[in-house]
Write a structure and sequence with these properties.
This protein is of the alpha+beta class. Among the domains are: 190 residues, Rossmann fold (3-Layer(aba) Sandwich); 125 residues, abc- transporter (atp binding component) like domain (Coagulation Factor XIII, Chain A, domain 1, Distorted Sandwich), CATH 2.70.50.60. Strands 12, 15, 17, 18, 19, 21 and 22 form a 7-stranded mixed beta sheet that branches. A 6-stranded mixed beta sheet has the order 7-8-9-5-10-11, with helices on both faces. Strands 14-13-16-20 form a 4-stranded antiparallel beta sheet, with no helix packed on it. A hairpin with a 2-residue loop joins strand 1 and strand 2. Helix 4 crosses helix 5. The radius of gyration is 26 Å and the shape is globular. Bound molecules: adenosine-5'-diphosphate and magnesium ion. Adenosine-5'-diphosphate binds next to strand 3, strand 4 and helix 2.
């Protein structure tokens, strides 16, 4: 182990030093051929997609990479993964890398899903036997049914990304690189992916995440970088980086250069005296899906809205069953109307005697951010004793102070074993629901604070 600038080398997962990438662009395809056959004068325009990128990502960190379209994010990821070589500079990686690059890469369209799983598994360093052992798990995660035996060219983009993500995470990578691909899947699948990304984070893995979704970058990443026209403009906290990125997207073109300079200055202040190496990140917007026009939304049940990320922990004498949401009229629903009251309910079957029992719930966003929850009892007022064979119905009435979007709910039962409060059963993503989109809604983001805006023109300027 040796140290560079105070950082021990073994703690660095990814290091880029003065990395630049130049693409040659030929106006006519024949010029490329001429240049090969008749060396000498170049017929190509040079295009620098990346210029002098310095970046270090420490192990265990999640870096978001943001930037406008064409800014060089995918090029950067491909250089890190090794599918492109840098024109100048050095890349160093420490650990097994697995990548989910933009759609189309990595899979052979003529091969079936199964053949591609084997092909990619081998590329990722697994033996034939290892892929065989993991195949069922990969197919289960992708959940594309018989399509696994069909050529990949017949897949929808959603199926494609399901299989690609399933393969990418199957190797338990030390470094996972995700390039905007997740925005393609539906919310249930996205949640499943985010929950896998979180378990890689918990294991100490390093993640690079390109996305347009400000919320996902802020929630998932602990560092972020802003790339613009091939330049690493800013490296800092996800909140800071995302705010400058949004400013850049909405800037009128005549203000762009001044804004870039302003961001560069913020960056040099942040990195004054600490050398010049930055850390990167970005991601895409899952956002709201369908824009259905609904005058007066009412709650209903959508059979397609079933969580795919449900994790049931090993139970200790209690089992959570039938988690669902009821409307006040007593109908099972999972598409809710903003502002209305609902009941989240589940049953618990006890197979062993339990002491000091309490029940709980927790509501989260798609990317796993915990919004709010409740326990059924305080610690002092816990249910003293529940006999084996008992069945308990647990209900949490709640008001839906959430804005349109998709949310997930946990369920949990705790009891006291040997004087310590322990989970008797726990179910992550037990249920999911959508809050319906509405026309002309002024409120935004996640929480509905029932804000009532009022704007008054106090003095009208009279023009002569
Ligand atoms: N193989 C290539 N040949 C020529 N130009 C390329 C190639 N790949 C990417 N580019 C160009 O490099 C720039 C950065 O592209 P990319 O890294 O895909 O941006 P982003 O992922 O941020 O949208 C774009 O202008 C793109 O047209
Ligand atoms: Mg890209």
């Amino acid at each position: 182990m040796f140290a560079v600038g105070g950082v021990v080398m073994s703690e660095i997962a990814i290091s880029l030093k003065n990395v630049s990438k130049c693409f040659k662009r030929y106006t006519r395809p024949v010029d490329r051929l001429k240049e090969l056959l008749l060396p000498g004068k170049s017929r190509a325009d040079e295009f620098w997609a990346l210029r002098d990128i310095n970046l270090e990502v420490l192990k265990g960190h999640t870096l978001g990479i943001v930037g406008r379209n064409g800014s060089g994010k995918s090029t950067l990821l491909q250089i890190i993964v090794g599918t492109l070589t840098p024109t100048t500079g050095q890349v160093q990686l420490n650990g097994r890398v697995s990548a989910l690059l933009e759609l189309g890469s990595g899979f052979n369209p003529e091969f079936t899903g199964r053949q591609n799983v084997f092909f990619n598994g081998r590329l990722l360093g697994l033996s034939q036997k290892e892929v065989e052992n993991k195949f069922d798990e990969i197919a289960r995660f992708a959940d594309i049914g018989d399509f696994i035996e069909q050529p990949v060219k017949t897949y929808s983009s959603g199926m494609f990304v399901r299989l690609a993500f399933a393969v990418a995470i199957s190797v338990n990578p030390d470094i996972l690189v995700v390039d905007e691909a997740l925005a393609v899947g539906d919310e249930a699948f996205q949640r499943k992916c985010f929950s896998r990304i979180q378990s890689i984070q918990e294991r100490g893995g390093t993640i690079l995440f390109v996305s347009h979704s400000a919320t996902s970058v802020v929630e998932l990443c602990d560092q972020a970088v802003l790339v613009d026209s091939g330049e690493l403009l800013l490296s800092g906290s996800p909140k800071l980086v995302v705010s400058k990125y949004q400013k850049l997207i909405y800037a009128p073109s005549e203000k762009l250069e001044a804004l870039r300079q302003e961001i560069r200055e913020i960056n040099s202040q942040l990195f004054r005296g600490s050398g010049k190496t930055a850390v990167i990140s970005d991601q895409t917007v899952p956002g709201s899906t369908s824009k259905i026009s609904l005058q007066k939304p009412s709650a209903f049940y959508d059979p397609g809205l079933i969580p795919q990320s449900t994790i049931s922990y090993i139970s200790q004498g209690a089992k959570i069953e039938n988690p669902c949401i009821f409307s006040k009229e007593g109908k099972v629903v999972n598409v809710l109307a903003r502002g209305k009251e609902y009941i989240y309910t589940y049953q618990v079957k006890f197979t062993e005697v339990a002491y000091k029992v309490r029940f709980g719930m927790l509501i989260k966003t798609l990317s796993g951010f915990e919004l709010g929850g409740a326990a059924s009892h305080s610690l002092e007022n816990a249910v003293d004793c529940i006999e084996p064979g008992s069945l308990v119905q647990v209900e949490f009435k709640f008001s839906c102070y959430l804005l349109p979007g998709v949310y997930f709910v946990n369920a949990g039962v705790v009891g006291t074993i040997d004087y310590t409060e322990t989970y008797l059963d726990r179910c992550i993503d037990a249920a999911m629901f959508r809050v319906q989109p509405e026309d002309n809604l002024l409120a935004n983001t996640i929480i509905d604070f029932n804000i009532e805006p009022s704007v008054l023109l106090m003095q009208q300027q009279v023009t002569a």
